[in-house]
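Escalated from tier 1: iron/sulfur cluster holo job.
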Amino acid sequence: NEEILRKPDWMRIKLPPSSQKIEHIKSTLRKNKLHSVCEEASCPNLAECFNHGTATFMIMGAICTRRCPFCDVAHGRPLALDPDEPRKLAQTIKEMNLRYVVITSVDRDDLRDGGAQHFAECIREIREHSPQTRIEILTPDFRGRMEQALEVFRETPPDVFNHNLETAPRMYRLARPGADYKWSLELLRRIKEMHPDVPTKSGLMMGLGETNEEIVEVLKDLREHGVNMLTLGQYLQPSRHHLPVKRYVPPAEFDQLKEVAMELGFSHAACGPFVRSSYHADLQAKGEEVK
Ligand code: SF4
Ligand code: SF4
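Tier 2 regenerated the structure:
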């Protein structure tokens, strides 16, 4: 039995008391039967993000065709797509008055285009309902379906394209069994090539057993593939059935890695114990605009 690492002091934060705005957002979500990653992953940043008018939605259901042992999403055979989801999502975003949204999904290896078309429909509907809202998509790798997915995004690019490498290549067998490091890098490169003005972004978790040197190598690979923005956060074990936390990376090391990232030429790097893929996404994108 692997001993569970005790959380260091820097990992303990108190959630601020829930505000009216947060309650409003939560009840709007309930009413429209939509899922936010913020709530479902019990994200420690929820209050902060909702108060900023930012949220992350999960589309195409809550059942994934893959099973990554760090991830808390259920796996199995997904349900058919809800063709009305893009409209419902767009209406909810309008009602919630969100300024910046992140749209993500489970992996849908069962769909011919991996769900790219559904992402695009969501983008179109949101733009129609809330032209001011900026849209970041955090996509699966579209493994085996890259051409179909690229074709879709050629017509309908998001404001920010995000795809997470999650960890160093040595850790893939353990942490991302259905994925391929090079494939993911290639997806990011091709999107950038197609839409040079759309910022690309990727995220990594720390504490799975990788070394900081390996992370630096990944950062270099990302820059070589044109990726503009980075998120680097601490992995937290969702339950005892998931991969254990091997190490809690101290804040000072995150700061050092951020310095390395900026030297490598990322336009924005959010690095810290609580950073998530969508953390301060709105502020990051703003930084991108003034670049
Ligand atoms: Fe939601 Fe992302 Fe903010 Fe967490 S960091 S609350 S998942 S938007
Ligand atoms: Fe979780 Fe994504 Fe892996 Fe599916 S592909 S199990 S949603 S990390």
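The chain has one domain: 17-290.
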